[in-house]
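Predicting holo structure, zinc ion bound.
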Amino acid sequence: MTIASEGPGPDAVYREALQAGRFTVQRCRDCGRASFPPRVFCRHCGAAALEWIAASGDGVVYATSVVRNRPDKGGDHNVSLVDIAEGARLLTRVDGVAPTAVPIGAKVKARIVTGDVPHVVFDLVEG
Ligand SMILES: [Zn+2]
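Done. Tokens:
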């Protein structure tokens, strides 16, 4: 399968948007469901009908685990699965809380981290 002639792949499109400060996810025009990570075909129905939509940034912690790391390698941190309001699930990190204390079910808000590899992390929402 060759799609190179159609421009940058979905992962590049996603990261370019992040670098410009926009958190976007893909939604299928056929089945209406969100897909993440970026892909060419809908992960639910297989249609090549994905469009980019702006994500609200609202999410809920679905699961979390601690990755142990030496202090000189950045120390311990959490790896969390966050369900976003659009219906996709992201493998990400929740900041502002001890790695072992990320609450399952907590409301979180997306924050874009730009740089060499722009990505999205989440902060706990008060209340
Ligand atoms: Zn679909």
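The longest helix spans residues 10-19.
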